[in-house]
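Journal club prep — side note

Before the paper discussion, L.F. wants everyone to see what a predicted structure for a comparable chain looks like in token form. Sequence:
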Amino acid sequence: MNAPPYLSIVGWARNDGYTPNYAKRLEHSIGFLVRQLDRHRIPSEVIVVEWNPPPGSPLLADQMNGFLGGTSHASVRFIVVPPQFHRGPRGWQKRGMHVNNAANVGFRRARGRFVTPKALDTFYSDKLVSTIGRLDLDDRRVYRCDRLDARMEAESWLDLADDELLAALARHVVLRNGRLTHSIDWKMRDLHTNACGDFILMSTPRWHEIRGYQKDPTVLCLDSDSIALHAAAAHGASEVHWQEECIYKVVHGNTHAQRVATIWKDWQLKLDHYLILRHRRELAMNLRVWLNYPRRRVRGLEEILAPSIERHFVAKAARYAKNDTSLVTNDADWGLARESLSDRTVVRAAWDTP
């Protein structure tokens, strides 16, 4: 290798039919991304972590090997994580993907100066790639942008040319995942956590400093992207929210917001309402942390009752707001650092000499 790339984009995948036409969607989005990176001349790599491949299904790395064609600036790597590394967390038998662990494998092995996670069925706006292509990112910053959800009525969008697809996505936006206003009672930094798992761009040393996404003993992996953003801020990264740049996501029936439900018990609701009516909001929020309610349930894994967002996220973010970097959410060997995994480059850029 001559010199390390400027950018690493880390995604995760599994050939299990997560959405209809999943392999075709994946092929389309990776090809689209590679062409963008090449057009804007960004020395880069796209890392696809193929997590826990289902037995009897072909590897995505084999299916997609050769479809991308040539590229001068973007390499594509597939890192395969065998099934034995998936066993153990609660729910592993029912859900074959562990997003935190898969992403961390890619973060740990990324060669770029800057790294961002990316859901592989999303699309970057050309403005976003153009901005990155200025090659003037700051190691002291963490970069965010909004995700725009688009509803496409037919699968014919998979056959559109790149410029036609971007135009169609822009026409069919149904939701902008913009910055949310957090309760002042949460005592956390005002950071753009909404849909941040689709784009948290920061330096590779920063990802190593916070040890990637937090360790999760379940396969739910709730709040981890938001916690990572707050951890980075505690370690000194200031947030830049790009306003004109964006990411598009084609809405399907298995998105995060459609799967997660909040579970209240009657006494919890009554107590919460009582305290808020008497202007004791801070006490109400503290009780949610201390007593861990309302819990959350994820469709398809109803047997796992997840912690409240206040216990799981808000309490950590409040500590990070005080720059408490003693809060470490993962082990020193995060990302299966000690394991030798299959790492295959299916498309090699000019900068990427073996």
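L.F.'s comment for the group: The mean pLDDT is 92. Keep this in mind when we get to the figures.
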